[in-house]
Queue: 2 jobs
Job 1
Amino acid sequence: MIVRLIVFIAIFFIGWWLYRQFMLFKQGQSPNKNKKHSADEKDNTQESMVRCEECKTFTPKSHAVYDTEKRAFCCQEHLESFSQKP
């Protein structure tokens, strides 16, 4: 009799814990006005990316190094190595 009571209590607490985890998960996925507002601000602060002519990786436009023909490079070393190619 006691064993059944202990098993029932254990099942109840496991179910309660699973329910709380599910509700926390649902709250995290629901669109929230505050979250949407911060996402809009993030979109406004994103800058465009440019591809390095040497290694073909993308770098932010403000961090790129440009040659005289307006080609973008991720660093000064790649600009120099690209310029030395025939």
Job 2
Amino acid sequence: MKNLVVTLFLFFGMLSAYGQWIENQGIPIVTEGTSIYDNKTVVGKDGTTYFLGYCPNLKEAEDEYDTDNVVYEYRLQAIDKNGVRKFGDLGLLISDYPNRSYCVVNDYLYLDKEGNIIVVVFDARAHEYEDLMGAYAYKISPEGEKLWGEDGVLLGNGRDLVAAMRMVELTDGSIVFAWMRSHGQLLAIDLQRITAKGEPQWEPTEVGLNDETITYQYPYLVDAGMNQFILVYAKGGAQDLYARKMDFDGTSVWSEDTRIYRGGWGSIPLWTILDVKPSGDGGVILGWNDDRSMTNIETAYMSYVTKDGEIGFSGASDNGDVKLNYSEFRNFNCKVMADPAGDGFLAFWRETSEGQSWQRMVMQKVSKEGELLYGDEGVMIADFEETNFGYNSIQPGNEGEAALFYMRQNAGYGDVDVLYITFKTETGEFLMEEPHRLIAGTKERSSMTSHVCQEEGFWILKWKEDYKDENNNTQEKHLLYRLDYRVNDTTSVENIITISDNFYHSNEQFMVKVANAGKAQIEIFDLMGRKIDDINNVELNAGLNTIAWTNKSGAYIAKMTVNNEVLNCKILIK
């Protein structure tokens, strides 16, 4: 028999005291009434979520479609861990100079180790033509102060076509920026290092990659420790992948750049295929899909470059990369992450039939030697359905655990679910019976990203929804959702029993105390927010009541509605 212990907590929101977070739906990043377009989202150690977007200023325009008069403003918004906006309803204004109103391949936002926000905006303040825009970097304190001045720091010359901005912080607190720019009929990669005080240190074209006959594009930056970093980039028209380790002064550390993959994507934008992440040991891992056999069947691959510039999977294939499964289905959207346990790497991707009408979700783990640890076909997350999956991502959770997030299209337009599942990284064993639907498909949703705050023990999801304004124009809004995965140490069974008199020891039942008699509806959830049981029409007497219920050992939440009052009861079974 199991010992069951229960205590009551009164609070406003389901599963937590976060008054601004809403059960089963996201909260808007800014107030509705006009569109906000997404650039980047990051989450700080204190649980604050930062979002940089651009919003149309309609002061001189009839509406957003009045393109001659509308001005797009870059605004930074901060949502604290309780779901409260820190920078007002619309966010902190960064720049309202003329700019392009649409761009999808720039990394504008970064958080340094001190909790400051590094923002890069692109505008035409230095030139009357909007196609000649400059990149300007700002350092914003958590309170909203512009630490590098009101005008920021110019990156580059302010006159080139630029895109694909990336950033990484070095050990001394300086920030390295990398971006690609026009170089005649080709593309080049420039780099710049800005000190913590906002002082440029390099000549971007001298430190970067440029040639009169070769194009360079799509830079990615990964911290390598010891004031060094790894630059991953694409070279040539076939977009061959290379890695270069660079030092504090902008010089190369390795004797030559490491070629990761010979390429073969042609004109396909690499940012739509490639995922680049730290390996956890000073190197870098990459995930992508390609059709190197020319069979019209794309396959997911992973590559690992060590801190010394060696290909970690050199024995796995002729190319030194690992084929992540042998299912013979088409593979897309491969996302990768180093297992926090330090014993390998995780991957999560979408598989489809030949015509992509049937789709499923699959994950895999790869050892540092290139062995497939979850079998030749990986572990299936969601079985084949005649639908669309997408916007998949992977995040760490509790020790030895991780979570997978993705979207699923249901009946048609305006019917998109948000789902997730947790698992043990060592074995691939699920911690839930099946993927849980966090947000039901009642809206047209897309562009979902996931983020983790390991210090506070929760994940943040961000996605886009379309809606109609009062003039029946389609507008775009972005929403956040908080999902807790960690039980605070002070709520452990041993601690609570020691410090609280409000616990009742029993067998396969729990006790609740109410002031007045009434009929209660009880919903029981696990700590991931997954509903696991209902107890309907429970007659409660004033005072202490015993309710029969049991489950396997663990922690649960009972949400009880009685006399129009909502009580939340934490249940601990050991």
